[in-house]
Amino acid sequence: MLGAAIGLLGLGCNVALAADARVAYLPIAFHAESQTIQTTACLQVTERVYPQSAWWENANGNAEAPERAFKAVIAAIKHKDRAALLKLSHPGEGKDVKEFDEQTGALFRQFEAGLELAAVPRGYEFDGLLVYLAKLRFKGETFVAPSMFFDHNDGSFGFLPSRRGQLNHPTYLLVEAWFKATCGPGATGRLTYSTDLTIRRATHRMPVALSGGSSRSLRNPNKAFFLFLTRRR
What we know:
Layout: H1 3-8, E1 21-31, E2 36-49, H2 65-78, H3 82-88, H4 97-112, E3 116-126, E4 129-138, E5 141-151, E6 157-159, H5 163-167, H6 170-180, H7 185-188, H8 196-201, E7 204-207, H9 214-219, E8 226-229
């Protein structure tokens, strides 16, 4: 349902909308043909948490780069501003003009038909990517969908509207596996994290270095992200 919307849109927050951030660990599930297997692996992310209010409509100028990027994309979609959305998107998204127009056109039509952005309570940063989990409403139904951005390493973020753009980032597939697992937030509406005990028991810690933004992450320990694994005895 609303396939293009799935590609669109995953602590306290002060008045200036500088979201508090904390380290969280997402348990990774493996999707087999007949079942979903919960593994002992988990991905380290930075979680950003927001109020239930429509913070993306706030005109406050003190918002940080992730919030500014999300606000600008939502405004461009609501105004059906293709040029603005192309400028806000990752450069690679505009290379296939036909696909970009199909994706953005679908988004424009869905919002025009009554799709509502109800809340955006959380965002996750990992390996040069930023993913917001948004609650959407359409014809009385509410569902959650991810919105993905690429960190340009210069303080700005580029929107990734297409599914193809998401699949180019293997780390995103790990987060998607967590989200879609039978015990994950996509199915239950509840957030599930690996515990501190799981992290302490991990036998392997692997630096994440898959997407373009991760080279900076590895040079800067404060922006490094890791995959934790526990060998079964």
